[in-house]
Amino acid sequence: MLDASLAEATKQKFGIGQPVPRQEDPTLLQGRGRYTDDLALPGQAWCVIVRSPYAHGVINGIGTEAAKAMPGVLGVYTAADMAEYGAMRATLPLKNRDGTPLTNIQRGPLAADKVRFVGDPVAFVVAETKSQAKDAAEMVEMDIDALDAVTEASAAAAPGAPQLYDHVPGNLVLDFQFGDAAAVEAAFATAAHVTTLSIRSNRIVVCAMEPRSAIGEWDAVEERYVLRVGCQGVFGLRAQLSKDILKVPADKLRILTGNVGGSFGMKASAYPEYTCVLHAAKMLGRPVKWTDERTGSFLSDCHGRDHETEASLALDAAGRFLAVKLVSYGNMGGYLSTVGNNMGTGNFMKNIQSNYATPLLLVETKNYVTNTTPITAYRGAGRPEANYFMERLVETAAREMELDPIAMRKLNHIRPDQFPFNSTNGSAYDSGDFSVVLDRAIAASDWDGFAARKAESESRGKLRGRGVGNFLECTAPPMKEQGELVFEEDGSVTIVTGTLDYGQGHWTPFAQVLHAKLGVPFEKIKLVQGDSDRLIAGGGTGGSKSLMASGAAILEAADLVIDKGRKAAGFVLEAAIEDIDFAEGRFTIVGTDRGIGIMELAARIREIGPLPQDVPNSLDSRTVYQEAPMAFPNGCHICEVEIDRDTGHVTIDRYVTVNDFGVIVNPLLVQGQAHGGIAQGIGQALIERVAYSEDGQILTASYMDYGIPRADDLPSIGFESAPSPCTTNPLGAKGCGEAGCAGSLPAVMNALSDALGGRHIDMPATPERIWAALQG
């Protein structure tokens, strides 16, 4: 936990716990951000991807001659030109219930034998200008024999369904099971009550503000690739591209990332277009740029969610939970992303427990390939869905058993005296006070005033309901993370880390941690994240772990600075090292008022020149923070909705949250992260859904057809903190980036169900669906 000097520093203006505005904001708000598409390299050419208009079909040939003859065209490439490159594939070592590995799929940069979703890239054109490349792309001839398509996982499992791959019988790539099936079935057989719901987690388009873009370069002298691209971590992306796809040593590829306009999981891994621009750059000897257009993004950016689940909860007569069971179909799309298989398997398993002491759980998920855009992580990546399933079960069970749902939750909460709590899912919960969080949320929501508000709504012919979204999220475990501090000649200090900011605002909280620890002036702190040449480790950003990883790495590197500084200060102050103390940014001789500030010391030892061998010539430090356990952010959202009987339109009238995110470094940024997650959860709950036709054509390929929440769809969101510091990382932080989704899905949908008299309705609860439910 925090040492005395760090605790004292929290009282300062820029210390831990202070709502410091984001360092990035002036640049971004003034339009001075630099995203990949903003870059124009000398001599660059343009790339346009040719995509399949068919969801499923056999490729007989791709005609390129007409395209090659178009003005400005520099090259047209098909799968035959890309045979030297390796494949993208699933990377997590998940296994079937019988212990065999999942059936993997090798995806090349361009489709070679078959196309497997609308938007599958089959060729690309490079020309002098973007308009020339687009014109030429329209001249590429696709000789494809269309086949029957399948777009739902349950349909892909049916006998006689179209088969996407010869080596994937029945389209099944993973048959996952976790839990003691016999013990769970016995618990259900003897339970006083069983609640079962059929629940759909609808497919989502990520809708990042910045479309994907990439610029490939080839350095012929060093025989080295350079890729400029928006991503979630340059170290991990370099490892994937260099090893699996380009088949070159890691030092032969440099990844550079500037500002990134959103990702939410989608931009974490490699895509075919990245190999295409690198190949073209090497062939043509000049930079090659590609930027997607919005419909291309709808087709080719990996989607999120998409599970069909039967969720069941077994209870005794008092309402104690005996066992929970999920049986799911997971839709993987036409190919396997690196992590797509994990959402409905490992993350369902880790998060269905939530904050309840349920003694038994069983997760059975079958993942299928279909003729749809591949699925990958989307804000929470299975964590919000699992919490949603559990909370819908709890609320429905309480209604069916005529028990108080709040009392039922408290009866089943893990108690503070049970920590550390070894969960049924294998996790070791370290801290929390879940009933206190729930009580505070009830108080903040004006729970007792609901009856009067409901009566007032009814007086206007409206329906009103309220919903509780209790949640606990198991974050991703921090991987090895670099912590490096460089004392620059201009008097600044640079933090180098392997996480990567794509909207979170890392610079400010990282600077707060360093300022609190070392007393470095806040305004002198810089941040480097997006250059793979600067990194020796890096877990990237995702899974709500950045501060736990980078924050710990910064503290570890700072300890090295203090050790070096004591040696240097001893030399400069002519004192023994053991007599040098450090506090609040200053090295002092114990028992005297003689000392030197850390920034002055860094400058002095640089100026002195050659130093004795045992005296460091700089305060620079670099370390790799080793892996730490996952953390368990939790909280409670309470939502009230009002429904128009005549139209089915939903208004979210009130919304409050109480959250345990452990030690909060910057409450302003944390609140913003919560708001963003809640907005995306409301979008999934009420508005968003990817729709396909029977032949696999996407029907929601633009914002004319796909809705996302706007400002007038969202309520004022109450935010309170009830922290229980995490005990397994030095900052005591728990992560917060995905928690907004985890609480909002159940809170909104439980409120709708309450307004509808307990009926279950699937997401998205559009006015049409609600109106139909009201008609019976």
TrEMBL record:
SUPFAM superfamilies in alphabetical order: CO dehydrogenase molybdoprotein N-domain-like, Molybdenum cofactor-binding domain
Keywords: Molybdenum, Oxidoreductase
Domain of life: Bacteria
Pfam families, alphabetized: Ald_Xan_dh_C, MoCoBD_1, MoCoBD_2
Keyword Oxidoreductase: yes
Ranges for region Disordered: 1-29
Aldehyde oxidase/xanthine dehydrogenase a/b hammerhead domain location: 30-148
InterPro entries xrefs: Ald_Oxase/Xan_DH_a/b, Ald_Oxase/Xan_DH_a/b_sf, Ald_Oxase/xanthine_DH-like, AldOxase/xan_DH_MoCoBD1, AldOxase/xan_DH_MoCoBD2, AldOxase/xan_DH_Mopterin-bd_sf
Keyword Transmembrane helix in annotation: no
Name of this protein: Xanthine dehydrogenase family protein molybdopterin-binding subunit
Native organism: Neoroseomonas terrae
